[in-house]
Amino acid sequence: MLPVKGVTDSERPFFIKLNGTAVSSANAYNWFKKVYTKCGIAYQGECFGPRVHDIRHTMATHSLAKMIRKGLDVYTALPLLAACLGHKSLTSTEEYVRLTCNEYPELLEMCISLNEFIYPQKDGNE
Fold first, then answer.
1. How far apart are CA 16 and CA 7, in angstroms?
2. Which DSSP category does 54 fall into?
3. What is the pTM of this model?
4. What does the alpha-carbon distance between residue 80 and residue 66 come to, in Å, rounded to a whole number?
5. Cα–Cα–Cα angle for 114, 118, 124, nearest 5°?
6. How far is Cα 80 from Cα 93, in angstroms, rounded to an integer?
7. Which residue did the predictor score with more confidence, 86 or 118?
8. Do 80 and 89 contact (CB within 8 A), yes or no?
9. Is residue 1's pLDDT more than 50?
10. Angle formed by the axes of helices 53-69 and 105-118, nearest 10°
11. Which residues on adjacent β-strands are paired with residue 16?
């Protein structure tokens, strides 16, 4: 069984060995590389990925999408996500969230509707 003591401690490592000690970043990356190679995902280069950090971005995007789909307002969801990620500002969180038209068309439509409400279209006479 994996140790779970201190799971709420923000200083605790995310990747741990069976004995509860931290996995080195090199070992975490090597396992990650084995997984994406086995999945047939091509390596694009050191700065282009896939990267272990991409998992964090994916989690943020999917978490925000799930909260919105369950009816949570975007303005409520973003601060919750920011707290989960340990961010001090929403700007940092916004950089993590990458909603694309293909993956989340319904969320895009919600954002468009919200934008139209906040920024109404002017007719040519104004």
1. 11
2. H
3. 0.62
4. 12
5. 115
6. 10
7. 86
8. no
9. no
10. 70
11. 22
For residue 50, whether the previous peptide bond is cis, meaning omega lies within 30 degrees of 0, is yes
Model confidence pLDDT, tens digit, residues 26-56: 998 898 899 999 999 988 877 787 888 888 8
Average pLDDT rounded to a whole number, residues 11-16: 78
Q: Give residue 72's region: left, alpha or beta (phi > 0; psi -120 to 50).
A: beta
Q: Is the Cβ–Cβ distance between 93 and 85 less than 8 Å?
A: yes
Q: For the chain, how are helix, strand and coil distributed in percent, rounded to 5?
A: 50, 0, 50
- Give me the chain's average pLDDT, please: 79
Strand runs labelled E in 1-123: none
Q: Cβ(68)–Cβ(107) under 8 Å?
A: yes
Give yes or no for residue 75 having a pLDDT over 90.
no
Helix, strand or coil, per DSSP, at residue 16: strand
Query: How many C-beta atoms surround the C-beta of residue 114 within 10 A?
Result: 13
Residue 107 near residue 65 (C-beta atoms within 8 A): yes
